[in-house]
Amino acid sequence: MQRIVYVDGHFVEEQAAKVSIFDRGFLFADAVYEVTAVVNSKLAEFDGHMTRLQRSCRELSLTLPVSLDELKAIHYALIEKNNLNEGAIYLQLSRGNAGDRDFHFPSADVKPTLVLFTQARAVLDNPQAKTGLKVVTCPDIRWHRRDIKTVSLLAASLAKEFAHAQHADDAFLVENGFITEGSSCNCYIVLHDNTVVTRPLSNDILHGITRQSLLKLAAQHNIQLEERPFTPEEARHAREIFISSATTFVMPVVSLDGKTIGDGTPGPIARRLREIYIDMVKEQVK
Ligand code: PDD
Predict the structure, then answer these.
(1) Is 81 a catalytic residue?
(2) Mean pLDDT score, 23-32
(3) Among candidate residues 5, 193, 36, 27, the one with its CA nearest the CA of residue 104
(4) Catalytic position from the list 18, 134, 149, 259
(5) Where are the alpha helices (DSSP H) in 88-208?
(6) Is the beta carbon of 244 within 6 A of some atom in ligand 1?
(7) 1 — pLDDT class (breaks 50, 70, 90)
């Protein structure tokens, strides 16, 4: 069975879905996106993702062509049409088809292109949560507005390829001597007094929705948390390292640049935060 996807007001089989070669998402990466986890056929952290989508749109003067209620209905229609129990929904909004290649923004009557599709995958029982990830560092060569969730993901893609070439699962990006974030996740280290450290919000990193909830949950569960930058060297000597994102939730890291972290198995704080986060999601999707 083919996936049913959404393109500009229509639900169609994936092979029938079409976007113009003049679409500005295709030509200029002039598009924003969101990835929302699906658990128990329900959306996790939907409001957070939509709030960030609205912010990304504002920052780029992009207009959402549908209301948030309509967006929610489209997400749920896709879950239903694809019988999706667990996985994610990808949403992309571009500045649309301007009819030709031109750097300037098109006139206001050009409609943005809205595309959504589902991806089935294990979110709760992700086997990597048991083994942990191997990560390597590489330079952060991205642009300077990483707080906007745009589809200009070539640098992230290159970082993942760099990691895979070294038989690692992912890459942490380094700028001016400090880790900014992962290629598609936020990063955390756990100090030897069990304090969790994560980089503060700025234009240097994406303001993760999972991160936002984790900070609240850490405070509720008396887990010490400090927002400050950290270096790869400090991370390699940390007690634990972990990451967060909508698709991985909380995922332990067991080696960085070939150096084993802790005893090489997922650490207790990462495991606890994953558990607490999953409990919160389960409450949302009851
Ligand atoms: N990526 N930082 C970057 C660069 C990201 O691409 C992501 C998410 C995050 C975590 O944000 P959130 O917790 O809101 O998912 C941080 C998504 C999952 C992706 O591109 O597939």
Answers:
(1) no
(2) 98
(3) 27
(4) 149
(5) 128-131, 154-165
(6) yes
(7) confident
Which atom of ligand 1 is nearest the CA belonging to 149?
6
Which among 53, 135, 185 is the best mutation to test ligand 1's pocket, defined by most ligand atoms within 8 Å of the CB?
A: 185
Are 181 and 205 in contact by the 8 Å Cβ rule? The answer is: yes
The domain locations on the chain are: 4-120, 127-285
User: 177-206: per-residue pLDDT in tens?
Assistant: 999 999 999 999 999 999 999 999 999 999
87 lines ligand 1 (CB under 6 A): no
Residues 6 or more apart from 192 whose CB is under 8 A from it?
Answer: 238, 239
At 206-225, the pLDDT tens digits run 999 999 999 999 999 999 99
Q: Give the Å distance between the CA of 88 and the centre of ligand 1.
A: 12
- CATH homologous superfamily of 127-285 equals D-amino Acid Aminotransferase, subunit A, domain 2 (3.20.10.10)
**pLDDT tens string 244-261:** 999 999 999 999 999 999
Cβ(27)–Cβ(151) below 8 Å: no
Residue 55 half-sphere exposure, CB side, CA atoms within 13 Å? 17
Query: What is the reported pTM?
Result: 0.98
The minimum-distance atom of ligand 1 relative to the CA of 210 is: 13
User: What is 4-120's CATH topology?
Assistant: D-amino Acid Aminotransferase; Chain A, domain 1 (3.30.470)
CA of residue 247 to ligand 1 center, whole Å: 8
Mean pLDDT of 91-109: 97
